[in-house]
Every structure is written in C-alpha cells, then in structure tokens.
Amino acid sequence: MPSSISSLRDNDLNCPPPQNSTRTRATSRRRPTSLDVLANPQAPEATKLPRNRKRQRPPAHERNQSTMRAARRALPAHLLCRSCLRHQQRRFASSAAPPRPPPSGLAALPSRQLLSVSGPEASKFLQGIITANVTGADGLPRKDAFYSGLLNATGRVVHDIFVYPLRQGGPAPWATEEGYLLEADAGEVARLARLIRRYKLRARVTVRDVPPDEASVWQAWDEASPLAPDVAAGESRLVLEDPRAPGLGCRIVQLNHRAPELDVDASTEAAYTIRRYLRGVAEGQDEMLREQALPLEANMDVMGAIDFRKGCYVGQELTIRTRHRGVVRKRILPCVIYGKDKAAPRALLYDAECSSPESLTADMIPAGTSVGRLGKRGRSAGRWLKGVGNIGLALCRLEIMTDLVLPGEQAAATYGPGGDEFVLEWGEGGEDNKSDVKVRAFVPAWLREALSAQGLDRTERIHR
C-alpha cells in the first residue's frame, strides 16, 4: 500500500468527526422522555423537555405491559391463560358472594322496567301477540295481573313479561285511558317497544315508556306466612302473587317514586335472584336467550305463561305442536357447582362462603359453556346460562342429567349415585389455559309435580 494512502487514512481516523454528524448524536447522552420528567419532576431544567418539542412515546416494553394489563381486564374468562385467570379470580374474590337471603324481605328490581300499552283496542291487540289469554271466561278483558311471554314466528322466546291491567281513573294518575303495563327486562324494553310498534299497524294503541319515577317494580316475600292477604293492591300499587313457582312471593308495581310500605325487612335484588335460582326460575334475556330458548324449555308452560286453548298468536304453531305431539327433552334447571376434588352435593343449597381467592364461582363461568360428562366424550348434556355464588341455572337434558322419565322412554342408566358426574370446561388452548368445575342439576319439587301431571294428562289424551 502506498505510504501516501496509508498516511491519509491514518489522518482520517485521527480526525474528530464533525459536530453535526449522526455519529455524535447516536453516541451522545439519551435525551429525557416524558416518563423521565413525570418520574422526577424536581430534575434540573436541562433534563426537562423543551416546551416547543413534541413529547416522545414511552418505550416499547412499557407500552406492551400497559396493553397486556388492559387486555387482561377486558377479555372474558374463557380466553385467559391460567395465570391471568388466577389474577382475575383474586380480583373477583375480593368481593364476597352475596349473603344468604333473609326469610322475609322487600327488594327493588332495577333490572325490570315498565311499558304502557293503552287505547280502545289494547286488549284485542295484546291478545294476538302474547302467549297468555287476555280475556277471561266471560269473554271480557281480565282485571287481574298475569305472567306471559312474546315469541317470534318460529316459536322462540323474545320477551318474558308480566301484564298488569290499568283502568281509566284507577291508581295510576297518568293513565288517561284503559290499557296495560308490561313489565320486561330493563335492557330489552326499547326493543320490546319497537316490536309492539311494528305489530301495531292501524290498531288504536298508544305505546309509552314508563320512567322509574312514575312506576317501579318490587318483590316481597315471607317464608313464615303468605304475603298475599297483607299485600293488597291499593291507590298507589298493583300486586300479583308470583305464579311462576311456590314461595317466590308477591310482585308489586309501585305507582309513585316511593317504596312500598310493608312489614318486612329491606333486602336486595341479589337476594331475590338467589331465591329465584333455588326454585329454577329464569328471568330476562340473559337466562331465556333471546330468539333461542323455547317457551317449554324455559318452563313457561308450567309457570302459567301459556294458554294452550286460546286463539292464534305469534309463534303458536310450534308451541302447540310441541305440547301435544312432541317431547321436551331439555329444560332450565337449578344447578350447584363444586370443586373437582369434592363429592357431589346431595341437596340444592346456597353457600355464601363459597368464594375464596383460589375458587371459582358461578358468575365466572361464561354463558353458553357446554356441560359434559366427567372423563368422557360425547353429546353435550346441557348448557350453562347464569349463576351466582355456588348456584345457577342451566339448560339440561333431562334423560341424562336427571332421574325424570320422558313419556314413552325408559330412565337413563347413567343417572344415579354411581352414575356419571358432569363438568363445565371453558378456555382455549392447552390444559394449562382451561378452567373446569363440576356441576349437578336438581329438579325442584314443584317442577317435578307439574311435569308428572303433564305426563298423566298427555297419556290420557293419547288413550282417548
């Protein structure tokens, strides 16, 4: 190599780089970020960001950690890994399960809301769209409140409702004409109003939302004595003894902004929900899945919501055919969940002490989770709906999960003390990302009696 070239390179290497070069900026001290300024607000002015300079984004690892924390809070339980699920369980378990319901109580039900349907043709109009009979034996509109439902054209449940007749000049000061109050799921009232307006066409009917300050829904109960004689309808309220199951109490519509004055303790909607679950009564479209549940699977036939002798209504054809010619193989039943290392419960009891940082509670189970046989594969035995604490509701296959015998069939050989156990599993991926808990279904005494009476009645009709 020529000496001139060698000396030139040596000179180039020995020369300091220019002050404005990229090498100088890259090797200089890291400039402060917005996180540095926030972490050390007392730092000298030289380390703070200039006012005219745009703040830089946090480092990538800090952004990733923040994103993961937000995603873990937003994702449902069945999409979380086991470590994230344990974190979520600890967060849920920080609030204890609701206490055991009191023997008597009065609870406001903000999950239910009212809709007014009034006008000279209100009775005729409702008669054509709901499952119960609006008219009495004398052919005149009923004056008592009742339980009913609305179906779609394929016979699936759209709304479960209570219907309260209103008369002009009655206890509701804002009722200027004859009509009805429809009580429905508060989250579905707007959809119910749109559905009624769609069916209304030229019927002389007025549909109006009733705000909570005009009328509110309450539930009262007393396990020691019946409430019906003491809770009478008056100038400020409408009363209905809940027909869905024995012991549920009385439904009260308070026609002002005050609470009903009754000689029972104040309670909560959570207590009412627990009492409802223990009796196997579903309510609202979180439990009677909209446009999926059949009314007979939701036990609406044994709760007095369906009149099988009335005239045509929306969804009648499939309902009547299933009643007289089909077999209802699935029904909503109360269930108890328990750990995989525990024995199956022998009774349907609510345990207020079931929650702990390491345990799963019924409200953590995703809706729609399939019920399967423990340690076996095969057909699903049911589907989880909703729960609280250690109890909940599930749509169960009767011949698999219970000892009920369907008409024309034999009892399932798998049910019994030595039969199959059932499990709820959810989560995606490998075994480490799944959660599971055992579940057992129970048939309440009132439902068993009603289904037995139905079976005898159906047998008599077949042999006639």
Q: Biggest sheet, in brief?
A: 6 strands, antiparallel, barrel
Please, what is the average pLDDT? 80
Spatial order of the strands forming the largest sheet: 10-13-12-11-14-15
- Overall CATH architecture of the domain at 104-278: 2-Layer Sandwich
Percentage of residues in DSSP E strands: 15-25%
Terminal residue distance: 119 Å
**Which runs of at least 5 residues are low in confidence (pLDDT < 50)?**
1-28, 45-50, 85-94, 459-464
Oligomer description: single chain
CATH superfamily of the domain at 104-278: Aminomethyltransferase beta-barrel domains
The CATH class of the domain at 104-278 is Alpha Beta
The third-level CATH topology of the domain at 104-278 is Alpha-Beta Plaits
Global Rg: 32 Å
Topology as H/E string? HHHHHEEHEEEHEEEEHHEEEEHEEH
The level of helicity is 10-25%
| Tally of helical segments | 11
Coarse morphology: globular
**Structural class given helices, strands, pairing?**
alpha+beta
